[in-house]
TrEMBL record:
It comes from Kibdelosporangium persicum. InterPro entries: AhpD-like (IPR029032), AhpD_core (IPR004675), CMD-like (IPR003779). It comes from the Bacteria. Residues 14-95 form the Carboxymuconolactone decarboxylase-like domain. This is Alkyl hydroperoxide reductase AhpD. It holds the Pfam family CMD.
Length: 151
């Protein structure tokens, strides 16, 4: 198992971790279902290979009532019957936003329109911020080889 290269960078820059946590608190207070936030956090973290965020995402998902089937199948959400239409829209948006550089049109209209059908502007804003903050943590944890279970 690779060793940690350094502590999480956000913990080393004064005020950085607190600022990220304040954004997270604001997202959680925006009225979007915690289950959706947990599913999108988990999916983005899987894509980015962030062990601590995947482990934390599973825990968060369980706390918010995500079913065992959903937790185990979130990477294959398109091929399973266990996700609602709004969860599917949120997961599609999560994948598009997390993989911005992979496509010439990173968030195609059909992905955006599906999300906008289920979420109002404030909810979409919370969803996008959740995806962005998750990707930020993934991009801090993965290169520094943060280990799951070391909180």
């Amino acid at each position: 198992m690779p060793t940690e290269r350094m502590p999480n960078p956000a913990s080393l820059v004064p005020g950085a971790m607190e600022a990220l946590m304040d954004v997270t608190k604001a997202i959680m207070g925006a009225g979007l279902d915690g289950k959706l936030l947990a599913l999108t956090h988990l999916r983005a973290s899987q894509i980015n290979g962030c062990g601590p965020c995947v482990a934390g995402g599973v825990h968060q998902a369980q706390q918010h009532g995500v079913t065992t089937n959903q937790v185990h199948a979130v990477a294959a959400w398109r091929e399973t019957p266990w996700f609602t239409d709004d969860e599917r829209a949120a997961l599609a948006l999560t994948e598009a936003v997390t993989r911005l550089a992979d496509h010439p049109d990173p968030v195609p209209d059909h992905v955006w329109d599906a999300a906008a059908k289920h979420f109002d502007h404030k909810e979409l804003a919370a969803l996008l911020l959740n995806i962005a903050v998750t990707n930020t943590f993934n991009r801090l944890n993965a290169p520094t080889r943060q280990q799951a279970g070391k909180w």
